[in-house]
Design goal:
single chain, eight-stranded antiparallel β-barrel, globular, alpha+beta, 12 helices
Length: about 550
């Protein structure tokens, strides 16, 4: 019995410390327990899981793998298991561009039409490689365009040429290049195509050579789902039971990068100047900065820049189905954190930052912003607070009264029953932490400020449009976008409400925010109000803006 107990203890210790490189014993036992609980919080017994690590000064100070890579054959996750790290692959597409720049094969100031002449051939202004890198191109996101067409992208086997064909049909941009930032996966698909034009090699082959130079042998972009090398962490959702799905996607450059925790640790160690590579140190360092475009301060070479609880950091998230990945870097502390998952239950973006809280001894998020009004304001009656409120990004609250009860309506969510907390504040009946404070701004307009424990307060302004002369049926009809052949059908129902079909998405709820703006789920439809039949609509969504639809019926 003593021998068995000894062997069991020895196995547990080995499993806990199995790692790539040496684990530095610099964490306290309390920190280790907290990190373990965070890492495994969404990994129940006999379930898919996670692989996570913390690297400081080029050395692994914490590592944890948990859960199954494959439930069918009970293969467990280990540091050599390959995950699809999705958009976290963008940093390597950007690095490949920087290597080509250093080799004098291209310039970041080159117009992309030099390499892709059929993309917006008649657009008069310059559209550069740098615009692609920092998402300032204005080019629309192909995934959102496919959605408009009624295509569920992950049910297809599209490749980069399919994406290029759709983009070549576009005649407009979201905005003038270089003037704004809007994340678009198309940018990095086009970068992959440019790399092919410049090198004469497939993007996958060229970047595979790059990963070899980076000492990342098990990392590769994949453009043929039938040849992805094992061992792979199969992706699972849970709808009362764990369910895997077939991965048949071939688009890459924007994502579809399969990598291991071991290889990601090697990359972070290289960034922290502890590993060697044949790639020049100045190129590696440049990849961790903003581009030369001074207007874009939050995105560089496949990497976001921001502030986390007062600390400067760089980060990126990746998500494609149940595969999710997070990388965060604190350059001043020379710390990096990685979390890779194959479970729809896990939230690595949150978990990784919780681990940062433990390691860096940071306060809870709620300590960094107000979670309730500082004082009670003037009385606001039920009748005066009713109506539609919106942010500048067209996120809306609608306050309505049913019998004597107040409700908050939000598109895509269940109605929320509210109760009054004081003269100008309401809260959710079953979650009093969700509060709504009503005040008037300097212009006398009603505003509502939303508070909660997990986010900073945000304001929405009440719509004050005069609908007395508006013909609610003037936007009834069918409209087409000639670039995608997508259709929109609109039917007025009652008050300011509409039933809308966009592509194959039926029975969407629309609400009229003003006499020129209809909100439909996650879309905004804008038009000119002529008090007659509306002939043209401009649709905007998350990553597409001002897509023109013209009446056909």
């Amino acid at each position: 019995m003593k021998l068995r107990a000894f062997l069991f203890l020895w196995v547990v210790v080995i499993v806990h410390h199995t790692t790539f490189g040496q684990v530095e014993p610099s964490l306290t036992n309390k920190q280790l327990r907290l990190l373990d609980s965070i890492a495994c919080q969404d990994v129940p017994k006999s379930a898919p899981g996670i692989a996570t690590a913390i690297i400081r000064d080029g050395k692994v100070i914490y590592q944890k793998v948990a859960g199954y890579a494959n439930l069918k054959d009970s293969t467990q996750i280990d540091p050599k298991t390959r995950f699809n790290i999705a958009s976290n692959g963008k940093q390597f597409t950007a690095l490949a561009i920087l290597v080509l720049e250093d080799n004098k094969k291209l310039k970041l100031t080159d117009d992309i039409r030099t390499y892709l002449p059929n993309v917006l051939p008649k657009y008069p202004n310059k559209l550069t490689i740098e615009n692609l890198l920092n998402h300032s191109s204005g080019i629309r996101d192909v995934y959102d365009l496919w959605s408009l067409q009624g295509k569920t992208w992950w049910k297809k086997s599209f490749n980069n040429k399919d994406a290029l064909k759709l983009i070549e049909q576009q005649r407009d941009l979201n905005f003038e290049p270089g003037t704004k930032y809007k994340y678009s996966n198309t940018n990095y698909i086009l970068l992959a195509l440019i790399i092919e034009k410049v090198t004469g090699k497939s993007f996958v082959k060229y970047t595979k050579e790059l990963f070899t130079q980076l000492n990342m042998p098990d990392t590769a972009f994949e453009d043929d789902y039938t040849t992805i090398e094992e061992p792979i962490a199969k992706a699972y959702f849970n709808f009362s039971t764990w369910k895997n799905y077939n991965w048949i996607w071939n688009v890459c450059g924007d994502g579809n990068l399969f990598s291991t925790l071991e290889d990601q640790i090697a990359w972070e160690s290289l960034l922290q100047n502890k590993n060697n590579s044949v790639i020049k140190r100045e190129i590696i360092e440049k990849s961790q900065t903003l581009t030369n475009n001074t207007k874009i301060k939050n995105y560089g070479y496949g990497l976001e820049f921001g502030d986390y609880k007062g600390l400067n950091y760089k980060f990126h998230e990746g998500a494609t189905g149940a595969w999710k990945a997070t990388t965060i870097r604190f350059p001043e502390q020379n710390i990096a954190m990685i979390t890779l998952t194959n479970t729809g239950k896990a939230t690595p973006n949150t978990q990784t930052r919780q681990m940062a809280d433990v390691l860096l001894k940071l306060k809870e998020s709620s300590k960094y912003f107000a979670t309730k009004p500082s004082e009670v304001g003037p009385f606001v009656s039920d009748e005066s607070l009713l109506g539609i409120y919106a942010t500048e990004e067209n996120f809306t609250f609608q306050f309505v009264k049913k019998d004597t009860a107040l409700y908050l309506k939000r598109i895509g969510r269940n109605d929320v029953l509210l109760e009054r907390e004081n003269d100008n504040t309401l809260h959710q009946t079953y979650d009093a932490d969700f509060k709504q404070e009503f005040t008037q701004n300097a212009q006398g307009e009603m505003e509502v400020t939303a508070y909660y424990t997990s986010h900073a307060p945000y304001k929405l302004k009440k719509s004050t449009s005069d609908f007395s002369k508006f013909d609610f049926k003037s936007i009834n009809g069918t409209f087409i976008n000639t670039e995608t052949k997508a259709l929109i059908k609109i039917q007025f129902t009652d008050e300011k409400n509409y039933k809308v079909k966009i592509g194959s998405q039926k029975n969407l709820n629309g609400i009229l925010l003003s006499t020129t703006k209809l909100l439909v789920e996650n879309y905004v439809l804008e038009f000119v109000n002529t008090n007659t039949s509306v002939e043209t609509l401009f649709l905007s969504g998350d990553r597409i803006q001002n897509v023109k639809f013209e009446r056909i019926k």
